[in-house]
Design brief:
Elements lengths: L6 E5 L7 H15 L4 E5 L13 H5 L9 H9 L2 E7 L7 H9 L1 H8 L13 E7 L10 H13 L3 E8 L11 H20 L1
Parallel strand pairs: 1-2, 1-3, 3-4, 4-5
Helix pairs in contact: 1-7
The structure holds flavin mononucleotide.
Length: about 200
């Protein structure tokens, strides 16, 4: 597909056809209805290695590792936005998603160490973070993941406009959770409105 001005949807669950997958199915249905270009990125199916803190990006603004993360740097740069859908793992985002987040250190280094951004910092982009937790709602259930994602969206120069949380998915799945379905519908409608303005 033409990876320009599209929306990147990251599926950060290792499980097929579970809650994150159902959420994404509903987002893509709305995007298609509204002629919004998108790409679903299933990170658990991709070869994406850990950041080794080698320091190469501090000198070059690029990552030395060449794998399935490599084209994603340009994709983030060219996109109009990114939606991340992640399960909570030990009060945080999923493991593979953290690997992707760490690899965007190349953008961070290019901006704040080299002062030669390897991402267009003037381009308007919009972000959304959707987190699914298996446990019934409890205080700070999503806080750990949220803090990481706040930095991630800064790293990819994307304005985070909405955080959406669903608890208790191990008892009541997305497909059964009408209350969350309507919150998702409303949030995606608003996201589409914002995307159409930029
Ligand atoms: C390793 C692991 C850690 C988890 N930690 C939490 C947690 O800290 N809080 C929580 O609410 N759910 C936790 N869960 C439950 C998942 O967030 C939940 O099953 C979610 O629905 C998974 O998303 P999926 O259905 O799209 O795979 C954990 C699950 C796993 C496998």
């Amino acid at each position: 597909m033409d990876n320009k001005n599209h929306i990147i949807i990251i599926n950060a669950s290792p499980r097929k056809n579970k809650n994150c997958a159902s959420v994404i199915k509903n987002i893509t249905k709305k995007f298609e209805h509204n002629n919004i270009k998108y790409e679903v990125v299933n990170i658990y199916k991709m070869n994406i290695d850990y950041c080794t803190a080698c320091g190469y990006c501090e000198k070059t603004g690029k990552c030395v590792i060449k794998d399935n993360m490599t084209p994603l740097y340009n994709d983030f740069d060219n996109s109009k936005g990114t939606i991340v859908v992640s399960p909570m793992f030990f009060q945080s985002i999923s493991t593979k998603l953290k690997t992707v987040v760490d690899r965007t250190q190349a953008f961070y280094s290019s901006k704040y160490i080299l002062k030669k951004p390897s991402i267009d910092t003037k381009k308007e982009r919009r972000g959304m973070f959707i987190a699914i937790g298996g446990q019934p709602e409890y205080e700070n259930q999503f806080l750990g993941g949220q803090l990481v994602m706040d930095l991630f969206f800064k790293s990819i120069n994307t304005k985070l406009i909405k955080n959406l949380y669903m608890s208790n998915s191990d008892k009541v799945s997305y497909d059964e959770n009408k209350e969350f379905q309507s919150r998702l519908d409303e949030s995606i409608d608003n996201y589409i409105k914002e995307i159409k303005l930029i």
